[in-house]
């Protein structure tokens, strides 16, 4: 009986060991389940982040395409800007030439005004001289008419004699 008891004790010890191991394994299973749940949540979170990041990548790729298109258009605009700048430069040069021409014309106009003033004074002087000559002519014509009358009167007196 002793053997049976020993055997039973051994079986009890084994059962206790097995129960302890079972508890330990249950705890491990529970821990692993918890870790598994956490990992699944992490996977779900990472999957969501991945989807968000993929959407962001698509959005950024669209922006890159838009920027590339705009850069291409910008290159066209850049050539337009250069053409406009050349046109502006030509117009500025033409404006400077026009300013120079205007200054020259203003100087010539000033000189013409000075000459015009000089000639106006000469014309006034000549008009005064003409008026003086006309007055002298009228005086002389009157004196001539008087002298002619006297000669005619004298010739008549001589003819009467």
From TrEMBL:
<dbReference type="Pfam" id="PF00261">
    <property type="entry name" value="Tropomyosin"/>
</dbReference>
<dbReference type="InterPro" id="IPR000533">
    <property type="entry name" value="Tropomyosin"/>
</dbReference>
<protein>
    <submittedName>
        <fullName>Tropomyosin</fullName>
    </submittedName>
</protein>
<feature type="coiled-coil region">
    <location>
        <begin position="1"/>
        <end position="157"/>
    </location>
</feature>
<keyword id="KW-0175">Coiled coil</keyword>
